[in-house]
Amino acid sequence: MYKITLYGILLLMTACARLDHVQISDIDQSQGSLKPISVKVSEFAIELAVIADVSSRLATNHNTQNSLKEIRDILALMNMGPRTGNPVFNDNYAENVLEQLYAQCPTGKITGLRSTREATTYGAVSGEIVRLNAFCII
Amino acid sequence: MSRFLIALVALVTLSGCVSLNSVSLTQVPNDRNNLISSTAHDWLFLGFTSQNDFVEEAVNGLKEQCKGGKLTGILTKHQTTAYVLVFKREIIASGYCNKA
Q: How many domains does chain A have?
Protein backbone atom coordinates (compact mmCIF):
# COMPACT_ATOMS: atom_id res chain seq x y z
CA MET A 1 0.00 0.00 0.00
CA TYR A 2 2.90 2.31 0.85
CA LYS A 3 4.40 1.67 -2.58
CA ILE A 4 1.11 2.42 -4.36
CA THR A 5 0.67 5.69 -2.43
CA LEU A 6 4.24 6.65 -3.24
CA TYR A 7 3.79 5.89 -6.94
CA GLY A 8 0.51 7.84 -6.95
CA ILE A 9 2.08 10.92 -5.35
CA LEU A 10 5.05 10.69 -7.70
CA LEU A 11 2.83 10.47 -10.77
CA LEU A 12 0.68 13.43 -9.68
CA MET A 13 3.72 15.59 -8.92
CA THR A 14 5.38 14.92 -12.25
CA ALA A 15 2.68 16.47 -14.41
CA CYS A 16 4.53 17.46 -17.50
CA ALA A 17 3.60 19.47 -20.59
CA ARG A 18 4.49 18.07 -23.99
CA LEU A 19 4.51 20.01 -27.26
CA ASP A 20 4.18 18.05 -30.49
CA HIS A 21 3.19 20.42 -33.25
CA VAL A 22 2.82 24.16 -33.78
CA GLN A 23 1.43 25.93 -36.83
CA ILE A 24 1.00 29.69 -37.19
CA SER A 25 -1.21 31.05 -39.97
CA ASP A 26 -1.36 34.47 -41.64
CA ILE A 27 -1.89 37.45 -39.35
CA ASP A 28 -3.94 40.35 -40.74
CA GLN A 29 -3.71 43.51 -38.64
CA SER A 30 -4.94 45.80 -41.42
CA GLN A 31 -8.70 45.33 -41.00
CA GLY A 32 -9.22 46.35 -37.39
CA SER A 33 -8.28 45.58 -33.84
CA LEU A 34 -7.68 42.00 -32.79
CA LYS A 35 -9.30 40.17 -29.89
CA PRO A 36 -7.63 36.94 -28.72
CA ILE A 37 -9.86 33.86 -28.79
CA SER A 38 -9.03 30.29 -27.85
CA VAL A 39 -10.42 26.76 -27.94
CA LYS A 40 -8.91 23.79 -26.17
CA VAL A 41 -10.14 20.20 -26.29
CA SER A 42 -8.57 17.42 -24.30
CA GLU A 43 -9.04 13.67 -24.29
CA PHE A 44 -8.06 11.24 -21.58
CA ALA A 45 -5.38 8.82 -22.76
CA ILE A 46 -3.59 5.95 -21.09
CA GLU A 47 -0.51 3.88 -21.82
CA LEU A 48 -1.78 0.48 -20.71
CA ALA A 49 1.57 -1.25 -21.25
CA VAL A 50 3.15 1.02 -18.63
CA ILE A 51 0.27 0.35 -16.22
CA ALA A 52 0.78 -3.41 -16.69
CA ASP A 53 4.53 -2.96 -16.18
CA VAL A 54 4.08 -1.02 -12.93
CA SER A 55 1.49 -3.56 -11.76
CA SER A 56 3.89 -6.43 -12.42
CA ARG A 57 6.54 -4.70 -10.31
CA LEU A 58 4.08 -4.15 -7.48
CA ALA A 59 2.67 -7.68 -7.54
CA THR A 60 4.02 -9.98 -4.83
CA ASN A 61 2.97 -13.29 -6.39
CA HIS A 62 5.47 -14.63 -8.94
CA ASN A 63 2.80 -16.06 -11.27
CA THR A 64 0.86 -12.79 -11.25
CA GLN A 65 4.07 -10.92 -12.07
CA ASN A 66 4.69 -13.16 -15.09
CA SER A 67 1.10 -12.84 -16.30
CA LEU A 68 1.23 -9.06 -16.04
CA LYS A 69 4.51 -8.98 -17.93
CA GLU A 70 2.93 -11.01 -20.73
CA ILE A 71 -0.01 -8.60 -20.83
CA ARG A 72 2.47 -5.70 -20.91
CA ASP A 73 4.28 -7.21 -23.89
CA ILE A 74 1.05 -7.87 -25.80
CA LEU A 75 -0.18 -4.31 -25.17
CA ALA A 76 3.20 -2.88 -26.22
CA LEU A 77 3.09 -4.87 -29.46
CA MET A 78 -0.51 -3.80 -30.14
CA ASN A 79 0.43 -0.12 -29.85
CA MET A 80 3.73 -0.35 -31.68
CA GLY A 81 4.38 2.06 -34.55
CA PRO A 82 4.46 5.78 -35.26
CA ARG A 83 2.08 7.86 -33.16
CA THR A 84 1.74 11.16 -31.36
CA GLY A 85 1.15 10.80 -27.64
CA ASN A 86 -0.75 8.11 -25.79
CA PRO A 87 -3.64 6.25 -27.44
CA VAL A 88 -7.12 7.71 -26.84
CA PHE A 89 -10.43 5.88 -26.88
CA ASN A 90 -12.30 8.58 -28.83
CA ASP A 91 -10.71 9.89 -32.00
CA ASN A 92 -13.48 12.45 -32.68
CA TYR A 93 -12.69 14.71 -29.76
CA ALA A 94 -11.18 17.47 -31.93
CA GLU A 95 -13.88 17.56 -34.61
CA ASN A 96 -15.89 20.61 -33.48
CA VAL A 97 -13.07 22.97 -32.61
CA LEU A 98 -13.72 25.29 -35.55
CA GLU A 99 -17.39 25.78 -34.60
CA GLN A 100 -16.32 26.53 -31.03
CA LEU A 101 -13.83 29.08 -32.30
CA TYR A 102 -16.38 30.83 -34.52
CA ALA A 103 -18.81 30.96 -31.58
CA GLN A 104 -16.34 33.30 -29.87
CA CYS A 105 -16.03 35.61 -32.87
CA PRO A 106 -19.30 37.45 -33.71
CA THR A 107 -17.85 39.13 -36.81
CA GLY A 108 -16.74 35.78 -38.24
CA LYS A 109 -13.38 37.23 -39.25
CA ILE A 110 -10.63 35.09 -37.78
CA THR A 111 -6.93 35.67 -38.34
CA GLY A 112 -3.62 34.57 -36.81
CA LEU A 113 -4.77 31.02 -36.19
CA ARG A 114 -2.31 28.94 -34.16
CA SER A 115 -2.89 25.20 -34.14
CA THR A 116 -1.12 23.42 -31.34
CA ARG A 117 -0.99 19.72 -30.56
CA GLU A 118 0.17 19.23 -27.00
CA ALA A 119 -0.45 17.14 -23.90
CA THR A 120 -0.26 17.13 -20.15
CA THR A 121 1.19 13.84 -18.98
CA TYR A 122 0.98 12.22 -15.55
CA GLY A 123 3.19 9.17 -15.94
CA ALA A 124 1.19 6.59 -17.85
CA VAL A 125 -1.93 8.74 -18.24
CA SER A 126 -2.24 11.97 -20.15
CA GLY A 127 -4.59 14.59 -21.46
CA GLU A 128 -4.08 14.72 -25.21
CA ILE A 129 -4.80 18.32 -26.15
CA VAL A 130 -5.67 20.14 -29.35
CA ARG A 131 -5.55 23.90 -28.88
CA LEU A 132 -6.57 26.60 -31.35
CA ASN A 133 -5.58 30.16 -30.50
CA ALA A 134 -6.58 32.92 -32.88
CA PHE A 135 -7.55 36.58 -33.20
CA CYS A 136 -11.02 37.82 -33.97
CA ILE A 137 -11.05 40.98 -36.10
CA ILE A 138 -13.51 43.38 -34.47
CA MET B 1 43.47 13.43 -16.82
CA SER B 2 41.31 16.20 -15.41
CA ARG B 3 41.88 18.30 -18.54
CA PHE B 4 40.74 15.40 -20.64
CA LEU B 5 37.62 15.02 -18.52
CA ILE B 6 36.83 18.75 -18.70
CA ALA B 7 37.31 18.70 -22.48
CA LEU B 8 35.09 15.64 -22.77
CA VAL B 9 32.35 17.19 -20.63
CA ALA B 10 32.56 20.47 -22.59
CA LEU B 11 32.38 18.59 -25.89
CA VAL B 12 29.38 16.53 -24.82
CA THR B 13 27.59 19.57 -23.34
CA LEU B 14 28.16 21.89 -26.27
CA SER B 15 27.37 19.42 -29.02
CA GLY B 16 23.60 19.79 -28.82
CA CYS B 17 21.65 17.58 -31.17
CA VAL B 18 18.71 19.25 -32.88
CA SER B 19 15.51 17.46 -33.77
CA LEU B 20 12.88 19.14 -35.91
CA ASN B 21 9.45 18.51 -34.44
CA SER B 22 7.24 20.25 -36.97
CA VAL B 23 7.31 22.62 -39.93
CA SER B 24 4.46 24.52 -41.57
CA LEU B 25 4.15 27.14 -44.30
CA THR B 26 1.22 29.31 -45.33
CA GLN B 27 0.45 30.91 -48.73
CA VAL B 28 3.43 32.94 -49.97
CA PRO B 29 2.63 36.44 -51.38
CA ASN B 30 3.90 38.02 -54.62
CA ASP B 31 5.46 40.90 -52.73
CA ARG B 32 8.31 39.34 -50.76
CA ASN B 33 10.40 42.41 -49.92
CA ASN B 34 9.83 42.69 -46.19
CA LEU B 35 10.81 39.47 -44.46
CA ILE B 36 10.48 39.49 -40.70
CA SER B 37 11.20 36.79 -38.19
CA SER B 38 10.64 36.02 -34.55
CA THR B 39 11.87 33.30 -32.23
CA ALA B 40 10.88 32.08 -28.82
CA HIS B 41 12.38 29.38 -26.66
CA ASP B 42 12.37 27.80 -23.25
CA TRP B 43 14.80 25.57 -21.38
CA LEU B 44 13.91 22.27 -19.78
CA PHE B 45 15.87 20.30 -17.23
CA LEU B 46 15.37 16.55 -17.75
CA GLY B 47 12.48 17.40 -20.06
CA PHE B 48 10.18 18.57 -17.26
CA THR B 49 7.92 21.54 -17.88
CA SER B 50 4.38 22.48 -17.03
CA GLN B 51 3.61 24.95 -19.82
CA ASN B 52 3.94 25.62 -23.55
CA ASP B 53 3.23 29.35 -23.34
CA PHE B 54 6.47 30.35 -25.04
CA VAL B 55 4.77 29.74 -28.42
CA GLU B 56 2.80 32.96 -27.98
CA GLU B 57 6.03 34.95 -27.60
CA ALA B 58 6.90 34.14 -31.22
CA VAL B 59 3.44 35.25 -32.38
CA ASN B 60 3.67 38.49 -30.42
CA GLY B 61 7.11 39.12 -31.93
CA LEU B 62 5.67 38.79 -35.44
CA LYS B 63 2.70 41.03 -34.61
CA GLU B 64 4.94 43.74 -33.18
CA GLN B 65 7.01 43.90 -36.36
CA CYS B 66 4.03 44.18 -38.69
CA LYS B 67 1.63 46.59 -36.99
CA GLY B 68 -1.26 47.56 -39.25
CA GLY B 69 -0.06 45.20 -41.97
CA LYS B 70 -0.75 41.77 -43.33
CA LEU B 71 1.66 38.97 -42.52
CA THR B 72 1.65 36.06 -44.96
CA GLY B 73 3.94 33.25 -46.08
CA ILE B 74 4.60 32.28 -42.49
CA LEU B 75 7.15 29.53 -42.03
CA THR B 76 6.92 28.00 -38.57
CA LYS B 77 9.57 25.63 -37.25
CA HIS B 78 9.34 23.86 -33.92
CA GLN B 79 12.64 22.28 -32.91
CA THR B 80 14.27 20.82 -29.84
CA THR B 81 17.99 20.91 -29.08
CA ALA B 82 19.19 18.26 -26.65
CA TYR B 83 22.21 18.99 -24.48
CA VAL B 84 23.23 16.77 -21.58
CA LEU B 85 20.19 16.58 -19.27
CA VAL B 86 18.98 19.92 -20.65
CA PHE B 87 16.69 20.61 -23.59
CA LYS B 88 15.99 23.80 -25.50
CA ARG B 89 12.63 24.04 -27.24
CA GLU B 90 12.35 26.67 -29.94
CA ILE B 91 9.73 28.19 -32.18
CA ILE B 92 11.22 29.99 -35.18
CA ALA B 93 8.69 31.88 -37.27
CA SER B 94 9.22 34.12 -40.28
CA GLY B 95 6.89 35.76 -42.77
CA TYR B 96 6.38 38.59 -45.25
CA CYS B 97 4.84 41.81 -43.97
CA ASN B 98 2.83 43.87 -46.43
CA LYS B 99 1.56 47.29 -45.46
CA ALA B 100 -0.62 48.41 -48.37
A: 1
When pLDDT is averaged across residues A83-109 and rounded to a whole number, the result is: 92
Whether the CB-CB separation of A111 and A27 falls below 8 Å is answered with: yes
Does A116 reach chain B within 8 Å, measured CB to CB?
yes
Query: Of A26, A114, A118, which is closest to B71 when you measure between CB atoms?
Result: A26
User: Under an 8 A CB cutoff, do A14 and B62 touch?
Assistant: no
Q: What's the pLDDT at B48?
A: 86
Rounded Cα–Cα distance for residues B68 and A95 (Å): 33
By residue range, what is the domain housing residue A121?
A: 15-46+86-137
For residue A70, the SS3 value is helix
Nearest to A114 among B51, B59, B100 (CB): B59
Per-residue model confidence as pLDDT tens digits over B13-34: 677 789 999 999 999 999 999 9
Would residue A124 count as lying in a domain? yes
- Alpha-carbon torsion angle A26, A31, A35, A39, nearest 10: -40
